[in-house]
Design goal:
single chain; 32% helix; globular; 4 helices; alpha+beta
């Protein structure tokens, strides 16, 4: 899929690994390349997707989401787990385009809602979410299922 702003928006592929590794590392999410490849493959095999925004070189942005069923919703819920745009590419609408593309994927998967996590100390992310029509739904909590992780 291509956007109206000259960016290419598409599913992440093995060809994007080196650029994604650099983007994630710069964003504080460093991981070994084999782990990144395995995680992207697992996401693609399951109920989820990873999207990249490309202009002329390595990815300018990445978004990862998955969808799941709950007892409280008639339709699956999509959740954005990661939204990252390179520092030099921020404030250019790339994040908004990635979220719009993710929303279309979620609709195609039959989802009725989409969530994104923005911590209280992430004021700019919370403002971004509000600007895109996300409403706060209360605090979220996470618990490790295995000790030492």
């Amino acid at each position: 899929m291509t956007s109206r702003h000259g960016l290419e928006l598409r599913a992440a592929t093995a060809a994007d690994m080196a650029g994604l590794h650099l983007l994630l590392s710069a964003g504080g999410h460093a991981m070994a390349a084999p782990a990144l490849a395995a995680r992207l493959d697992a996401l693609r095999q399951g109920a989820g997707a990873a999207l990249v925004a490309l202009e002329w070189g390595p990815p300018s942005g990445v978004l990862a989401l998955h969808w799941y069923r709950t007892l409280l919703s008639d339709r699956p819920v999509a959740q954005i787990d990661l939204l990252l745009v390179g520092a030099e590419d921020q404030r250019r609408g790339i994040g908004r385009l990635l979220v719009e593309a993710a929303a279309q994927l979620a609709r195609n998967a039959g989802c009725g809602a989409m969530d994104i996590v923005a911590a209280d100390d992430q004021a700019s992310m919370r403002a971004f979410c509000h600007a895109l029509g996300f409403l706060p739904t209360g605090p979220r909590f996470r618990r490790a299922l295995r000790k030492g992780r």
